[in-house]
Amino acid sequence: MPLAGGKLNWDDLRFCAAVLKTGSMSGAARMLNADPATVSRRLARLSEALGTEVYIKRSGGWVPNPALEEFFDDLSQFASRLLSHQNTLTLPAEREGRVITLTVSGPPTVISHIICPGLGRLRESAPNIHLDLRHEAPAITLGESDILLTPVVPEQGRLVVRSLGAISFHVYALPDVVPDPLNWVALTRAHDTYGSGEWTATLYRGEPVYRVENYDDCARIIHASGLAGVLPDIVARRWPGLVPHSVETRSHSLSVYLCYHETRRDDPAIRLAAAWIADEVRRSREEARDWLARNLPAPSPQ
Asked: Cα(152)–Cα(107) distance, rounded to whole angstroms?
């Protein structure tokens, strides 16, 4: 049934833009520090102002009204560009007390072993940029993030995607341990189809003895159990006592991509953060390569 129509309210548009960005009412509520009921009321008011439902019910749930596709596109672009202009005014260091908060999401290994160790350098170069860091499984959409770090090239359109290089992996164990291909440590099954999961399956047979959610726990178990497992070099180098496998010296690599929406291309905060992240990835890869050169055993003579 058509709605009456009326004046547009910017707050209602802001809530709609947040739903479009995050993909859900709950995500928009988190982003705007509101509750889902408030988001629902705002969308209802916007629907009344537009004279048509903003979201419609389908078999898979509530979806944006296809008839408003052009409106949604314009709204998303406007909201992003408005934020970019705001950041342009806020970023200069002389504006003390003004803060820009960016949400950066990525795999735990990238956040914990690349981003976090470099925060001191970001603090020195851009003290008014604050980060909301989130651990995410490899994602193909931005969701609530301003910047997404992922090993999977996103399918969502209109993204700026930048390759930052690759993280390398080797088999690790304690010194003098002879790894057993039937007894090993791995990540949970959800990781089997990406990352080192598929490569690991070519090295070992059967099910691992232990499965864990992240590589730090994997390294912890390798250290405690005497078993072997595949680790990123950037993780292994932070665990004294673990060494690359003296027999299995083959390596695996996993690309890292940095993504943000194309409407934020001119956002100075995004540009600065992206450049800093790229530099931290480069720095981490170089440090891991140098460490590996000192610790990787020479191939056995044939």
From this structure: 11
pTM of the complete model beyond 0.85: no
Domain enclosing residue 116, as ranges: 99-164+256-281
The CATH number of the domain holding residue 189 is 3.40.190.10
Domain count, the chain: 3
pLDDT in tens, 141-186: 788 889 999 988 877 668 899 999 999 999 999 988 877 888 889 8
Decide the pairing of beta strands 210-212 and 252-261: unpaired
Considering the domain architecture, whether residues 260 and 249 belong to the same structural domain is answered as: no
Angle, to 10 degrees, between the axis of helix 268-295 and the axis of helix 69-90?
Answer: 80
Residues 181 and 225 grouped into a single domain: yes
The rounded distance, in Å, linking the Cα atoms of 244 and 237 is 10
